[in-house]
Amino acid sequence: MPMIQRNKERKWPVILFLSLWILAGMVHLTQGIWTSGWRNVPGDAGDGRFNNLVLEHGYQAFLGATPFSSPGQFHPVEKTITYSDTHWGTLPFFISLRLTGLSTTSAFQGWACLVSLFNLLAVLSLLRVCRVPWLLTGPLTFLAASPASLVWFAGGHIQLLPFFPLPLALGQMIRFRDSGRSVHLVRAFGFLCWLHLCSPYLGFFGTFAAVLFFAAIWKLVPPTTEPRPASDQVRKLTWIGSAAFATVTGLVTCLMYGLYLSESRQSGTRSWFELAALAPDWRTWLTAPPGHWLYGGGWPHPTTLNLSEHALFSGWIPWAGLPLAMVVLIRFRDDPESGRAASFGFVAIVCTLFFLKYTEDGTGLFLWLAQKFDGLRAFRATGRVVVVVHLFQALTLAMLMTQVYRKSSSRLVRGLLAGAACLSAVEVISLGQTATPKERIEARREAVLDEWKKAGDRPILLFAPGPSNQSSATVHLDAWSAALATRRKTINGYSGNWPGSHGHFLVDPSEGKGRAVLGFLRLPESEVSIVTSWGTREASLDIERFDTQPVRPLAGFEVQPARWELSFPVESFVIDGISVHQFVPRATIAFEIPRGSRTVEFLLGMRKGAYTHSGNSDGVRVTWSIDSNGTQGVLYSIHWNPRDREDHRGLVAQSFELPPGQDGELVLSVDYGPDGDGAWDWPVFGRLMIR
């Protein structure tokens, strides 16, 4: 009895120690909630709120108010839930919180904390399967499940947060290798299916990594003996439960991907050029996210990178374990810990190299495969593999430390290892996470609801406030939020894709383009409330309205636009070191002619993805005309078609003469090619000079 009492007394300090690390990791991952006193939700008013609304739609579908596949935006198009993540894997968490009476935003806060907790507990479980000493387990759990890169993604792409099924699947694979009992493989399959339901991105990356890991441990880790269940009855019940779990998750995963496949047949595939632009290169892996307490602005922090997808660096210590794992494997080949360390390290290295972009023009293993197999382009932002890579890096380090810990009985050595584990956790801390006040989100929704009532309170909402300082994503999410709150429909919508019928309105949510969509869809206006403002709340929401959408100064243009009519916002790029600006058809841009000017010079081109790697633009019609005293005359016109003409590829210098003594406006018009199809039409202009 005294011995049993002493064992119980020893457990409580261990439980407290591990619980503190788990709590620290959860608060770190969801710090935007905690530091605001639970007044903020993770993410901005765009992508963050979008994921919240997807979950809210799932809750309403659970109640039977709407079909799971059609969330009420992009009306009347159906099955638009597959334009982005469905969140089916974690929807039960959100539903449970909503059923307690929490609001949509409060339940989202709870969902984020629950998912973070599950991540940490899953990693803790895997480290226990790997027999990592408890003194190391706490800080290494924090390191693996709560790095700076994931804190950053949780503020921008929170759909990447729920990775917890992956470490659970890896644990089952290790147990299968140890015991040979196939029930563990059945469970691993079930957990991987669950991972796909949580996030298709994580499902793709995680399954790729899990297959590599299974092959590695089969080759490198000698089997050990795992205790068998006490009786045949226990084994039978274990099999039944595991098979049921795997069957359910497998069937629901098939259902989800069936919906994705049906949608992809209608909307087509992503551009390879987009895939190459978002692919990580070596700079990406060495760029720390904003808010990293130690590496601050990133290292080397190239300013040309889009940090929302290209800030993957959390610390040096996780990277240090990879070469050490290979050395230890050579030295201790027959040791299970060294074999596991090498297996984890092997997967981290292969995943990094496989998804890496080696050159600026898009050389890379995955990019090469994506050229051959269009379906792979669905996973366009391959830098998100960092969630998986960092996990395997941390597990590599855990196995190396475990091996040293077990081979040494010195308290000093073990204390140093514990200190190193804590240091590795401290290195990956990030302070500051994108978050948005709940009050502001709810006020935006209520503003639209008030105006909807004034506009007739009809079953369908068309929210078309026109040009403002608000992003189109924010505008459309305001509309969808209002529609969900009243369980009705909206023409507006925001997701990873959109129906072609709605495209021009979604880019420019103005009343004119909204009415054009209604006409195209043949929706009777008697069923639609057309709302054109946020009403009296605009000032309190810091909303400014404009007559036309502002265009930022165009770098490299000696003369700036005087007026414009655009179908899509101007986008700017750097090609061959030259700043260029994309005017997607149809576009009209007018410039004041400086007095005494005689010549117009500019660079004209088209982005490579428009006519390469499955891009199939038939070109654009570029016209320059002069507008003087109400009289127009064409000075330059060309069908620019790099798909069929080699001399149109790249940035090509163009020029033409102005008639002497002319003043007024010089008007640039960009129109569709001869097929009248704007797909892949990405013309760019640079170095405009009117002299």
Spans where pLDDT lies below 50 across 5 or more residues: 1-9
Helix fraction by DSSP (H/I, runs of at least 4): 40-55%
- % residues in beta strands: 5-15%
Largest sheet: 5 strands, antiparallel
Summarize model confidence as the mean pLDDT.
Answer: 90
Report strand order across the widest sheet: 6-9-14-11-12
What attributes characterize this protein structure?
Jelly Rolls; disordered N terminus; alpha+beta; 49% helix; 5-stranded antiparallel β-sheet; 15 strands; 691 residues; single chain; 3 domains; globular
Can you describe what's shown?
With 691 residues, the protein is of the alpha+beta class. The protein has three domains: 18-427, no CATH class; 444-537; 563-690, Sandwich (Jelly Rolls), CATH 2.60.120. 49% of the residues lie in helices and 12% in strands. The chain contains 23 helices and 15 strands. It has helices at 2-29, 31-34, 47-62, 91-99, 104-129, 134-145, 148-156, 165-179, 183-198, 200-220, 232-267, 272-278, 282-285, 307-310, 316-331, 336-354, 365-372, 386-407, 411-427, 438-454, 472-486, 503-507, 511-521, and strands spanning 40-42, 435-437, 460-463, 489-490, 528-531, 563-566, 571-575, 578-582, 587-592, 599-606, 620-628, 631-640, 652-657, 665-672, 683-690. Strands 6-9-14-11-12 form a five-stranded antiparallel sheet, with no helix packed on it. Strands 7-8-15-10-13 form a five-stranded antiparallel sheet, with no helix packed on it. It has a three-stranded parallel sheet with strand order 4-3-5, covered by helices on one side. β3, α21 and β4 form a beta-alpha-beta unit. The chain is globular. The model is unreliable at 1-9 (pLDDT under 50).
